[in-house]
Q: What sequence folds into this?
């Protein structure tokens, strides 16, 4: 099982961690939400949790809880700019359906 960052996402996370002045990496999770059933949760991690599964990608530590890992396995997290908007984009091979607003997905 693996989760990776694109180079653009890794640069963005590294810059953000430096700007924050603290943090050990990026925590990714899946939560029950939305019309398709699941939604991504992403936050900076200031400390490791005992249950964390760690992945390293382009110098950034990614932390995932065991319950979320099957839904995120094989995912690449990218950071994209589209017009005036920018943000993270999950390239998840497990997604079978997504809602129209793009906030939730199903596997």
A:
């Amino acid at each position: 099982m693996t989760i990776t960052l694109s180079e653009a996402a890794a640069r963005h996370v590294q810059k953000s961690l430096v700007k924050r002045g603290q943090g050990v990496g990026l925590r990714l999770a899946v939560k029950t939400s939305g019309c398709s059933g699941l939604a991504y949760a992403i936050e900076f991690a200031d400390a490791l949790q005992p249950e964390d599964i760690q992945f390293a990608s382009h110098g950034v530590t990614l932390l995932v809880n065991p319950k979320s890992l099957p839904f995120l396995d094989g995912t690449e997290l990218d950071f994209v700019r589209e017009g005036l908007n920018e943000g993270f984009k999950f390239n998840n091979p497990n997604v079978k359906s997504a809602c129209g607003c793009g906030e939730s997905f199903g596997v």
Q: What stands out?
A: The chain is about 15% helix and 45% strand. The chain has a mean pLDDT of 88. The CA atoms of residues 6 and 43 lie 17 Å apart. The chain has one domain: 4-106.
